[in-house]
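Sample intake sheet
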Amino acid sequence: MGGYPPYAGFTEFAIALGVILSAIVSLLGTSSRKRVIAQGEARLQDLSEMTGILDPKQLFAVFGPPDMGRVWRSVTLLDIRRARTPAGWLMSSDLVDYACILAAFIGMAINYWLVPLLLLGALGVQAAGWIVSARVPK
């Protein structure tokens, strides 16, 4: 993926920078959702993004009905971790985002023939997380 001399490594650097920025934005969103859930004010959108359960009826089956203010006050982060699906890992897992950041830094620091595949894998994980999060119910 290197390119010609003036642009050698530009593609890898651009992908790595995009992965890092995407992961940072995802980490910020996840931390704000965790704070809302810890305060006992979890909404449908928060639970759906944290667990990966995109159907509201399935969320009702897992966590029960919300109260009159349309929030779940009794849901904890441990309950969410137990109900998390693979889509939830893509959208809101700190470990996945930190691994993508690590892969991007490795891609910028090391020049090896497998590094572009590592970068493309991290880019694919971040893109999949954003695509799945577009389906979260509003």
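Comment: The two ends are 39 Å apart (CA to CA). The chain is about 70% helix and 0% strand.
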